């Protein structure tokens, strides 16, 4: 699907451009003692590695982590959340059980990673939504870097 590949390459170019602008904006007000967000954390890593050129981490490489997070983390999550809302609306019994587990385990506080192991019904629901919606059925494009013979 060459047209898909060229679209992805074009989007990747645009994303990098946006990221570059945002990082430049953010650098104007950066203070190491007061990290505000991930870009500041990465800026701290860039500054640290400038002091040690042998580390091999260039600013471009470190900031490309932001491209990964934006490219891989936004549309995937927002589309999944849309499916979650749609399917919970269509399945009120499941919605009530999810809600009850959230009330039970979290109450009014924010969730943390450890809570996952206590929230079997919510986790099962998320997995079921992923299976049902299949938002990325062909996954990312992969390409062999050299010819390989199996068996
Ligand atoms: C429901 C949400 C998500 C779905 C359905 C999803 C799906 C996928 C899929 C199918 C792949 C390709 C795996 C492969 O074939 O190699 C992938 C890779 C990746 N995802 Fe996600 N993803 C989600 C959320 C996120 C989030 C929130 C982030 C980061 C903030 C993220 C970061 C990545 C990265 C960095 C890779 C590349 C991993 C590698 O091969 O090195 N994803 N994801």
Automatic annotation (TrEMBL):
Keywords: Iron, Metal-binding. Residues 25-54 are annotated as: Disordered. The keyword Metal-binding applies. One of its GO terms (molecular function) is monooxygenase activity. The keyword Protease does not apply. InterPro entries: Cyt_P450, Cyt_P450_E_grp-I, Cyt_P450_sf, Cytochrome_P450_fam2. Pfam families: p450. Belongs to the cytochrome P450 family. This is Cytochrome P450. It comes from Patella caerulea (Rayed Mediterranean limpet).
